[in-house]
Each structure stands twice: as C-alpha cells, then as structure tokens.
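Regression test case RT-17, inverse folding.

Input:
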C-alpha cells in the first residue's frame, strides 16, 4: 500500500480539512492547515507515537473547523506558542503545542454537572 494512502487512512477528517475554506482575512487557519498537511506526510509510518499524534492532530483540526469557540481560542493561544532554540524538530514542537492547547480547552470548557437528590 502506498505510504500516503496509509497515512490518510489514519486521518478520517483529512479531506474535510483540506477542503475547508477559511475566511478571507483568516491567515491562521491557512497556516494551521498547511502545518497539518506538512506534518502528517512527514511522519514515520512505523513509529506508533507518530501515528497516535497524527490521529490526535486530525481530531484537533477537525474540532477547530467545527467549533467556532475553539477556533477563536486557538487563534488567540497559537500566537503565544514558544519553541526552544535547541529543539531538534520545530514542526513537532508546534504540533505538540497545538495538541496541548486543545487539551487545555477541553479541560476548562467541560462542565461538571452534579445531579442533586431530592429528599
């Protein structure tokens, strides 16, 4: 099987993400989609950690497209990403930061609902 087809099989939202048309002035979305495309085709298909990160990234970018509030939060937070000067793979560091932003968003926006019991 072709490696690119195998990588796309791990990304169920690939075509949706690639066909997404951002607003005219939305440069962050364009860059984010280019980073997504560049990263997924750069991974080592035999490395399980890379495959899991690609699956997470696919989910995060799909959420970015679908969820307006998350998109606004990501656009705010992505401008604050810092990469160390001694980083070996800058793209990988940026992708890890994007996934971390998503995890923080999920943690802080999920409401905890308690069911009270009436006596």
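Golden output:
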């Amino acid at each position: 099987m072709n490696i690119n087809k195998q990588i796309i099989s791990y990304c169920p939202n690939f075509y949706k993400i690639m066909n997404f048309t951002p607003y005219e002035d939305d440069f962050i979305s364009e860059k984010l989609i280019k980073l997504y495309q560049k990263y997924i085709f750069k991974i080592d298909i035999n490395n399980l950690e890379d495959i899991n990160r690609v699956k997470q990234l696919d989910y995060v970018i799909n959420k970015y497209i679908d969820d307006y509030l998350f998109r606004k939060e990501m656009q705010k937070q992505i401008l604050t990403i810092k990469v160390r000067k001694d980083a070996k793979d800058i793209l990988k560091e940026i992708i890890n930061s994007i996934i971390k932003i998503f995890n923080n968003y999920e943690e802080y926006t999920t409401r905890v609902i308690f069911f009270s019991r009436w006596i």
